[in-house]
Design goal:
alpha+beta; five-stranded mixed beta sheet; Immunoglobulin-like
């Protein structure tokens, strides 16, 4: 049975409306600090740096869209006005001063509109302000270790919250951990990163931070969370077979809760090993010797 053009149009329109509704509903149900199904934009910003990244991204999307539509309009104009049928006698014009000046100046102005906010964003990211809290994040195969040198010099490991077979994981999937990194809200947090074995990468999208953890080298970045809650990231450097199983979980709390957590952590992490994984590895090493 053949389908009329009207029926086909109505079906296409229905599919389009359903697709848009699905995307919008998925974006609307997105939780703060973690990815969501059908998400088509950046995660909601939780730091000033990420707010600037989002603004710069939106500016580039507008510029790219305008340029693309302009080039499309030129192509259509050329195809319609200057084909052999519509214009059998082609013009022999070789120079047009106005056009040549315009296609030189306009791209330069576009580049300036990009480079100025780009440099501002780079300086904002790289110029680390005076820190209220310093945290050292060490990437290991395949988990993270965190140390708080300004708050009692305790250290702990943070592993994916799953059973041994990874069949039962705590939600959100492949993001929750057993020991979260905890920071106070509205404070400058300096994160120093290094790798214990291979190159890892410390990345939290909602904070707008991503920096490599390189063995033998200490890199640093910073963030200032303006919202409380849980924020998730992952290692963003291919670091081995369990690369997908070393998430980052940051819990942002108020000052009072942070002070209480620090005091509790000094006692909790006073003795080693910090977790069952480290204990198992230590036992294996002892048996091998």
């Amino acid at each position: 049975m053949t389908m009329s053009m009207g029926q086909m149009g109505r079906r296409l329109l229905g599919l389009t409306v359903a697709g848009v509704a699905l995307v919008v509903s998925g974006a609307a149900s997105a939780e703060l600090g973690q990815p969501a199904p059908w998400e088509y934009k950046l995660q909601e910003a939780a730091t000033p740096v990420m707010e600037n990244i989002t603004s710069f991204h939106n500016l580039l999307v507008i510029l790219i869209t305008v340029i693309t539509l302009f080039v499309l309009a030129l192509l259509v104009t050329v195809m319609v006005k200057f084909n052999a049928r519509a214009n059998p006698v082609p013009s022999r014009t070789t120079h047009n001063t106005l056009i040549e000046v315009a296609w030189t100046i306009i791209p330069v102005l576009i580049l300036f509109s990009i480079v100025i906010p780009s440099f501002k964003l780079l300086f904002l990211e790289l110029d680390v302000p005076k820190a209220d809290v310093t945290i050292k994040a060490v990437g290991k195969q395949w988990y993270w270790s965190y140390a708080y040198p300004d708050n009692g010099k305790f250290e702990f490991d943070s592993l994916l919250a799953c059973d041994e077979t990874r069949q039962k994981c705590e939600p959100p999937r492949l993001l929750s951990v057993d020991n979260e990194m905890v920071v106070p809200v509205d404070k400058v947090i300096r994160v120093q990163t290094t790798g214990a074995d291979v190159i890892h990468s410390f990345a939290v999208p909602a904070f707008g931070i991503k920096i490599d953890a390189v063995p033998g080298r200490l890199n640093e970045t910073w963030f200032k969370a303006t919202k409380t809650g849980m924020f998730y990231g992952q290692c963003s450097e291919l670091c081995g077979k369990d690369h997908a199983y070393m998430p980052i979980a940051v819990r942002v709390v108020n000052d009072q809760e942070f002070a209480q957590w620090v005091e509790a952590s000094k006692k909790k992490y006073a003795s080693a090993p910090q977790n069952t994984f480290a204990a198992a590895e230590g036992a294996k090493g002892a048996e091998a010797q």
